[in-house]
Write a structure and sequence with these properties.
alpha/beta, 7 helices, 18% helix, 7-stranded mixed sheet, 14 strands, 250 residues
């Protein structure tokens, strides 16, 4: 199984518009971050996690020719606003909670009305129920994990030895039990400073110690994280700042 980081930035991306800080003006490509999304490839199947405003650019850049399922973590714009770009892929199977699917129906009425607009994406919605059962996407088992993003309940996902947890700063002990024996933990680490809805860097490192994966990769980072090379040099040997285009094997 492989995971490609399509984007590792926060909701504004990096460079941040109107900003001339050392990160936003860096010439290191690892400091340029599209909005967070990932592609998991297993047994020839492609599962996309989130589909934000940069998806078209990401799909062209990494030559994504087919998608077998889309897992939505939550309904914030930077995670769902690229869904209209799925039109060229034909039928799209999207998985999310009832609230999230309701937001998609509300925001894209031309797709979900009784008489959809001609040429709208052909989307099939699949509800992940409140008891968070494991389910299959194209024959691949996916285990949802309950997270909290400030006050918003959202989902992370575990597939085999990989867990992908974005946009959160709270998780119960019960849900942490689902993170035992991980090969790779991918998780939110917004910046150096505290934030009401995301882990800051030191809190993310504490969470890695709590879960104890073999390797951890941080993403959903803002320009306030600092320069990639400088921050990476301070991290434990099994913890990495992810960057756009990075592909890892699990």
């Amino acid at each position: 199984m492989k995971l490609r980081f399509l984007g590792t930035g926060t909701s504004t991306g990096v460079p941040h518009l109107t900003c001339n800080c050392e990160v936003c003006t860096s010439i290191d490509p690892k400091d340029a971050r599209l909005r967070s999304s990932a592609l998991i490839t297993k047994d020839g199947k492609n599962i996309l996690i989130d589909c934000g405003p940069d998806f078209r650019q990401q799909a062209l850049l990494y030559k994504i020719n087919h998608i077998d399922g889309l897992l939505i973590t939550h309904e914030h714009y930077d995670h769902v606003s690229g869904i209209d770009e799925l039109r060229p892929y034909g039928e799209a199977d999207i998985y999310g909670e009832e609230r999230v699917l309701g937001a998609l129906r509300h925001n894209m009425p031309y797709v979900f009305n009784a008489q959809p607009y001609p040429g709208a994406p052909d989307i099939r919605l699949h509800e992940i129920t409140k008891d968070l059962p494991a389910f299959n996407v194209a024959g691949i088992e996916v285990l949802p994990i309950r997270l909290t993003h400030f006050r918003l309940p959202i989902l992370g996902y575990r597939i085999g030895g990989l867990a992908y947890l974005t946009d959160f700063n709270q998780i119960t002990d019960e849900e942490c039990e689902k993170l035992k024996d991980l090969e790779v933990l991918v998780m939110d680490a917004l910046r150096q400073q505290s934030h009401h809805a995301h882990f800051k860097l030191t809190e993310a490192l504490e969470f890695v110690e709590r879960v104890k994966p073999k390797k951890a990769y941080f993403m959903h980072m803002s320009h306030d994280m600092g320069l990639h090379a400088q921050v990476q040099a301070t991290l434990p040997e099994n913890v990495f700042l992810a960057y756009d285009g990075l592909e890892i094997e699990i």
